[in-house]
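Moderator note: this is an archived Q&A kept for reference. The question asked for a predicted structure of one protein chain; the sequence and the answer are reproduced below.
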Amino acid sequence: MYYVYILKCFDDTLYTGITTELARRLDEHNHSDKGAKYTRARRPVTLVYSENFIDRSLASKREYEIKKKMNRAMKLDLIKGED
């Protein structure tokens, strides 16, 4: 199982990523050097949205869609369930 997730950073920005283990990845973003460089400078981060997929290909396509085709307002609507 793969997850696409959105984190809300301390500075109110949003970060989108992909993982196979949501809890581990959230912990890495908040407490480890394994977290993304972007989130390391914006801790703490909070998980605000996630979707699950059966394979990496589908998850990667969705991650790309969220990162590249959605602006902040669209992402906030997605988080609120208004997509």
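Archived answer notes: The radius of gyration is 12 Å.
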